Amino acid sequence: MARANSTGLRRDLELLEVLASPEARRRDGLGVVRVAALAGRETTQVSRALATLCDAGLVDRDEETRAYRLGWRLYTLAAQTLEAHLDAVAKPFLLQVCDQVQETTHLCVLRGLDVVTVATQSQPHAFRVMWEGIPVAAPSTSAGRVLISEWPTEQVREIFTSERLSAGEGRCALTTTEQLLDELAAIRSRGYATVDEEFDVGLVGCSAPVRDARGRIVAAINIGAPKARLGSRLDAAGMLTAHYAGKMSEVLAQDG
Length: 256
Prior knowledge:
Elements: H1 2-19, H2 22-26, H3 32-39, H4 43-55, E1 59-61, E2 68-70, H5 72-101, E3 105-111, E4 114-121, E5 136-137, H6 142-147, H7 153-159, H8 162-166, H9 177-190, E6 193-196, E7 203-211, E8 217-226, H10 227-230, H11 234-255
Antiparallel strand pairs: 1-2, 3-4, 3-8, 4-5, 6-7, 7-8
């Protein structure tokens, strides 16, 4: 019985992986037939399995399109586990960046195609906008660009089409896929990202990647401030952010 249950769990995980694929994200879900084809299983079996996962909150079903996507409970469980750990590890590094730059510092993660702030450190007098928990389209911010900077080129092309970018989603200043790819290459080269009044007038920011034990980017340390205060030292702040993001990555590597 234990072996049978284990096999069933593996099969369910395969379906979740299909629903986490770039195609599923781009199409905002997949129908039963497509999920079955990608998983290499019979449609009736997949339909029953998806219904069970849906009842558990691990999968959501759109009543109009009948497409399935990853569910709220799965995101909640994953986010609570990873983000709580990242928050705990990040605190001393956010504090050091904040103290040295004298500006508000954030820890950001990727949720789906959006970037979300999960922790903030600020000086009592510092400029601060309450971003915690608010999703913003990844290409629109320095943190979001860092978080997708090592995605495969084809994945970026498939998801962030020029049509999508030029539609102004998230007030992104990059309006073509090629512009985004060039920016991601520049981020990989220098080790941090900057934005200069791209997301909002008068606001600049910089971000650097935090990596886990396997070298994957799992978060970004970010600084956001008025251009009048940070603009002239934006690159210096970016390098400082990259330094402490690297230090945080070293701690996460030890956890692995």
